[in-house]
Amino acid sequence: MQQERIAAYAPHAGLEVVEYIFEDGVSAGKPLNVRPQGIYLMERLGEADIDAFVALRLDRVFRDALDALQTMALFDKMDLAVHFLDFGGQSFDSTSPMGKFMLTVTAAFAEMERMKIAERVKENKASRKANGKTYAVPRFGFENAPGKVISSLDYEQAVLSRVEKMRYRRGWSYAKIAEALNEARVPTKQGGRQWYASTVRNILKRLQTEQSLADKAASQGV
């Protein structure tokens, strides 16, 4: 939905979309410059062919008020036009009194909402834990079974094997793998059919981390 909104908005604002950047499974409460796609975003914004940054809403990018203000100040120094569609689709100068006021208020509300969500999640986890239920979000290839068990999903495990083969044996890029999965109509973990390069990369990095931990445990006789 966000991509569709931005794609529809860009031509009317005289913008040409160079790249869509997606961040899956990482909270916007973390500073932008420590999130994987945030790091990549900042690198891309520093390139000569980029002169604008567009997002649907401020809280899709930031949920920490200080991070939002500091990053927007950096965008100003980089002479980047900033567009948030929830501001009426208008770019604004965050250094101007009104622009900075609106940014500060919106960022503060986004941070408050993040804190409220975190509190609700914490309460829900505590309740599920007290009743002997699993509360972890299952990663791709697995599902939550009754009780505290996380069981393997054969179909998703087969997809993982296929993804690993495409990446490590054929040398395909993350984007090419995502395109292949979309063409094959392989459902995502949430049941959708839209895969992105960032989703594939995160899954493979998680697999590498798990394998590294398993190898370390085996070497230590754990």
Describe the structure.
This protein is mainly α and 222 residues long. It has 2 domains: 2-115, 3-Layer(aba) Sandwich (Rossmann fold); 142-219, no CATH class. It has 7 helices and 5 strands. The protein has helices at 2-12, 36-45, 65-77, 97-130, 154-169, 174-183, 197-219; strands at residues 52-55, 81-84, 90-91, 142-144, 150-152. The protein has a 3-stranded mixed sheet, with helices on both faces. A two-stranded antiparallel ribbon has the order 4-5. Helix 3 packs antiparallel against helix 4 (97-130) and helix 6 packs across helix 7 (197-219). The longest helix has 34 residues, at 97-130. It is globular, with a radius of gyration of 20 Å. The model has no long low-confidence stretch (mean pLDDT 79).
CATH C-level class of the largest domain is Alpha Beta
Rg over C-alpha atoms, rounded to the nearest angstrom: 20 Å
Number of domains: 2
Please state the average pLDDT score: 79
- State the total count of DSSP E strands: 5
Cα distance, first to last residue?
Answer: 46 Å
Assembly type of the shown chains?
single chain
Q: For this structure, what is the CATH homologous superfamily of the largest domain?
A: Resolvase, N-terminal catalytic domain
Helix share bin = 40-55%
Percentage of residues in strands: 5-15%
Shape label: globular
Poorly predicted ranges (pLDDT <50, ≥5 residues)?
A: none
CATH second-level architecture of the largest domain:
3-Layer(aba) Sandwich
CATH fold group of the largest domain: Rossmann fold
